[in-house]
Write a structure and sequence with these properties.
- The protein is α+β, with helices and mostly antiparallel strands.
- It has one domain: Cyclic phosphodiesterase (Cyclic Phosphodiesterase, Chain: A).
- The protein is built from 6 helices and 8 strands.
- A 4-stranded antiparallel sheet has the order 2-1-7-8, covered by helices on one side. A 4-stranded antiparallel sheet has the order 5-4-3-6.
- The longest helix is centred in the N-terminal third of the chain and has 17 residues.
């Protein structure tokens, strides 16, 4: 089965993200994120295959119980390759250590790390622009909005499981 590990964004930050997701893409004919809804999140571990979800659960539960929550700061908008528009989170040193240690813990049970795990570029996806024209419209619109600046508390990790069409929360773990 295919899994991934997310930090689930909650509270006012989640409301802000969901407002942008439901507004921005559809405004310019890009409906993928609305039609394939995901909870607001930051991917901590890129997708991987496993047959032993119980072992992953045990590792995540033990790991979460050993970690104190830490800060993530949102510092504006950014994009990947003029295709993905996102909120730009900056992890505190402590939060970055949590992500790196999470990767090591999973490696200890045979889950391979990938380039995206090692060269971690946290982001909160807001919209995809499937053509240069639609991306340019999305990006220009985001630049008219007030620059988002707020903090979030990295206080959870969640195992996400890939279903037939979308990712679903399998199990969430609270950090101390």
């Amino acid at each position: 089965m295919k899994l991934s590990i997310f930090y689930l964004i909650k509270g006012e930050s989640d409301k802000y993200v969901q407002k942008l997701v439901t507004e921005v893409g559809p405004k310019f004919g890009e409906n993928y994120l609305v039609e394939n809804h995901l909870p607001s999140h930051i991917t901590l571990k890129s997708p991987f295959e496993t047959e032993n979800i119980k072992e992953v659960e045990k590792v995540m539960e033990r790991f979460a119980n050993q970690q104190n929550s830490s800060e993530i700061y949102v510092t504006g908008f950014d994009n990947f390759r003029e295709f993905v528009a996102f909120l730009k989170p900056v992890f505190s040193e402590k939060a970055l250590k949590i992500q790196k240690q999470l990767i090591r813990e999973l490696e200890n049970i045979g889950v391979d790390s990938r380039e995206h795990d090692e060269e971690f570029k946290p982001h909160v996806t807001l919209a995809y622009g499937n053509t240069k024209d639609s991306f340019d419209k999305i990006w220009n619109y985001l630049k008219t909005l007030k620059k988002p600046e707020f903090s979030m508390n990295l206080d959870n990790i969640a195992i996400m499981k890939k279903g037939k069409k979308s990712w679903k929360i399998h199990k969430e773990f609270k950090l101390k």
